[in-house]
Amino acid sequence: MGKLTMLIWSTDAQPSTSHKSLPPTNSDTQRDHKKAKMSKPTETERCIESLIAVFQKYSGKDGNSFQLSKTEFLSFMNTELAAFTKNQKDPGVLDRMMKKLDLNSDGQLDFQEFLNLIGGLAVACHESFVKASQKRV
Ligand SMILES: [Ca+2]
Questions:
Q1: In the predicted structure, residue 74 carries a pLDDT above the cut 90
Q2: Lowest mean pLDDT: which of 83-87, 121-125, 129-133?
Q3: How remote is the CA of residue 29 from the centroid of ligand 1, in Å?
Q4: Is a pLDDT exceeding 50 seen at residue 69?
Q5: Where does the secretion signal sit in this chain (predicted)?
């Protein structure tokens, strides 16, 4: 897990050129980068890492390792969001969700399309949280 964070931050922190070609003036950046590597990931960083990990866990099951096929999407929904899925009385809801999320209509969900699902669910959760707290006042 920690490896993923390192990967993310090292991708951002380093120019595409190799280590050898870095001028000595970059030593500060390198030191900061090392420090960032050593420190414990923040809650936000861990959340990002988890989202990537869970996406790859399902996307890696068949076909393209970095896209969710319909089967992988259903497997994800029925496992990770079982409470949500079970509550849906309409059996076509997952089909329609998949179609709606698949913005480029290639029959696969890439990470961006997957994030739209997570984002949408997070917004819905947050809205019901806000509503609930307004009722209490
Ligand atoms: Ca797609």
A1: yes
A2: 83-87
A3: 37
A4: yes
A5: none
Name the pTM for this structure.
0.70
- Calculate how far, in angstroms, residue 86's C-alpha sits from the geometric centre of ligand 1: 25
Name which residue leads in pLDDT, 122 or 31: 122
Read off the amino acid at residue 35.
K
**Distance from C-alpha of 7 to C-alpha of 5, rounded to nearest angstrom:** 5
Q: How far is the CA of 88 from the centre of ligand 1 (A)?
A: 23
Query: What sign for the dihedral angle of Cα 12, 7, 71, 82?
Result: negative
Quick one: which of 6, 76, 80 has its CA closest to 37? 6
Q: According to the 3-state scheme, what is the secondary structure of 52-104?
A: HHHHHHHHCCCCCCCCECHHHHHHHHHHHCHHHHHCCCCCCHHHHHHHHHCCC
d(CA 58, CA 30): 35
In angstroms, rounded to a whole number, what is the distance separating the alpha carbons of residues 114 and 98? 10
Q: Which amino acid is at 14?
A: Q
